[in-house]
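Incident log, entry 3
Record: Solute carrier family 25 member 40 (360 residues)
Problem: checksum mismatch between cached and fresh output.
Input:
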Amino acid sequence: MIREDDPQFRITPIQQMASACSGALITSLFMTPLDVVKIRLQAQQKALLSNKCYLYCNGLMEHLCPCGETAWIPRRVHFHGTFDAFYKIAKLEGVPALWSGLSPTLVLALPCTVVYFVSYEQLRFKTKTLYNKWTDTVHQPMWIPLFAGATARTIAVTTFSPLELIRTKMQSKKLTYSEITTALRQVIKYEGYRGLFRGLGSTLLRDVPFSGIYWTTFETTKRIFNKPDSEKNSFLFNFFCGSVAGSIAAFITLPFDVVKTHQQIELGEKEIYTDGKIQQRASNMQNIVKNIYSNHGFKGLFTGLLPRIFKVAPACAIMIATFEYGKQFFQKYNTQKYKESLQRHQEIVIIGNHKNNDYS
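Fresh output:
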């Protein structure tokens, strides 16, 4: 039986990249509407929490937005839930609005997924190799995927944090690319380039534990069912394990997702005080959590749970099932190439022996 981590048949980083890209592309195309609805619901909650006047700069003009509705801004559309948000966004803004931010999502998802999955595979393999060498064993303890997943996610999230900031803003409000450019310039003007990493702390608090919980739960689920190797490597079984692991990890880390969204949709906003001075909004995670809890209670930290679960569970399932399927495909390809190479080598040796016998 061929072992997955056998160096002779192990897939290359380029093959790992190809396996990850297909899942990322499919996930981005089909799951973006659910992400749009989730962020709209969380953005609506943030608007309800605002108890001071502020100036919103969207790139075309400045809208004075005091508490409540005024003639300065169009009447806000209130969403009463996930399905109501789907209906109102499609009816009032058009169906394509459900895919707002798809371009930066694709730009973000493909390279970020490649960095994440390739880093995970390389870290997991190298850590397992060192562990097996030190302990003289061949098994993989549970802390290895937890460590590799958390570290790989830290690398990917930090690298692509500015793109995540743009994607979140485009989905929380319907903005053009010129408006996004203006907002980014304002962030750099008031906060410097570190402002492009707004929300990175809460994103790391959400994604790093998510990744560790996800990979640990995924491997645990596979062990609990204790399927034969042929069934463990099937697309449907990996799809099931991925959806279970993704749902559990998404539920546990949802409060961090809520805080992250509240921080990042402040992109381009400035606060107006009673003395007329304008100052950039400075919210930290602790204050955001206190405001959400005081206005909505503990359940406020789990706003958007249904669309997040509906997105994360199938997204994780598609990603891991496609990635594992791609790994198996390339592993079989590498195995076949190895056998063909070995067969050619044996044929060359046989021919060489025949020639030596003829000369003798």
